[in-house]
Amino acid sequence: MKKILDNWISIIFFLSLIAILSALIAEFFFDLKPCKMCLNQRYGYYAIIIVTIFFYLIHQIKNILLGVLNQIFIVYGFFYAIWHVGIEQKLINGPKSCSATLAKVSSLKDLKKQINNQEIINCMDVTWSFFGISIATINSILLIFILIFNTIFIIKNYYDSKKKHFQK
Q: How would you classify the pairing of strands 133-134 and 129-130?
């Protein structure tokens, strides 16, 4: 456990990188088009990668602020991942831009506008699964794992910094 926490920032960076690269490979090489919720889930990973690189460049990689910022991005991604799983399981509704339903309209012009603004990929459709588990579910599991370890990382660094402060 100590080894994981000592290298946590590198681990979270590479997990985020693997998640994004996997999504991009699936999208561009295997033509698995993402829905709006899939795209929203990626933003947290992008942010983790960018912020970690920034903190690395300023040599503050073990900074508690980095852990807290990452936690915000993890919660953001986890929110969308859980929401997406709920949509796939038909437990909750998604945003209007995620559904393939059309509202009643009074003119052909309004119908055409509605069709043109409709997302191509419906968020309820599971476009790919692994042993019957959707990518949104796998992403939720990965993010809960990252969330737990990042929380432990933040707490450990907080108490380590307090300990150093009192030893001076």
A: antiparallel
